[in-house]
Design brief:
alpha/beta; Rossmann fold; 5-stranded parallel beta sheet; 7 strands; 19% strand; phosphatase activity
Length: 151
């Protein structure tokens, strides 16, 4: 969702427009991260994430959730949004997160190749789409599925 450019952290390209789209169309979404609460609070403040996310629905490493590739984080995120995992879409940039989404039975997994080469994800059968920029997403798929979980 974000990346470091020099000394600055920035949201991934076109992430703001994509998050606006989700909110404007009442498409449920959340964050599922293995970062601790300190990092989550930092990112909420740094990127004004309250604008796009219900903070109470964000799932983070609280010491009780097994790390990715265990499916728990995505199962909890889907539960928080009252959705079946098969009706969810996950956008994920880490191989362990892709494996966690697959293990959770997520309906569609989109690999965000913003920091890793596209080739890393090409041979992963669970990856339905590879993007480097949120503008590349076909937004119509978010109307077909009930949900988008951002990992």
């Amino acid at each position: 969702m974000c990346r470091k450019e020099g000394d600055n952290l920035k949201l991934a390209p076109h992430a703001e427009k994509f998050l606006d789209f989700l909110c404007e169309n009442d498409i449920p979404h959340t964050i599922a991260t293995m970062s601790g609460i300190e990092n989550v609070e930092f990112y909420i403040e740094q990127f004004n994430l309250k604008k796009w996310f219900d903070i109470d629905k964000i799932v983070y490493a609280n010491g009780k959730i097994p790390g990715k590739p265990a499916p728990d984080i995505y199962l909890i995120a889907a539960q928080n949004l009252r959705l079946d995992p098969k009706d969810c879409i996950v956008v994920e940039d880490a191989v362990s997160g892709i494996n966690a989404a697959e293990n959770a039975g997520i309906g569609k997994i989109i690999a965000m190749a913003s920091m890793e080469p596209v080739e890393l994800y090409e041979n992963m059968p669970s990856v339905g789409e590879i993007i480097t920029d949120f503008n590349q997403l076909d937004r119509s798929q978010f109307y077909l599925k009930t949900q988008s979980v951002i990992g």
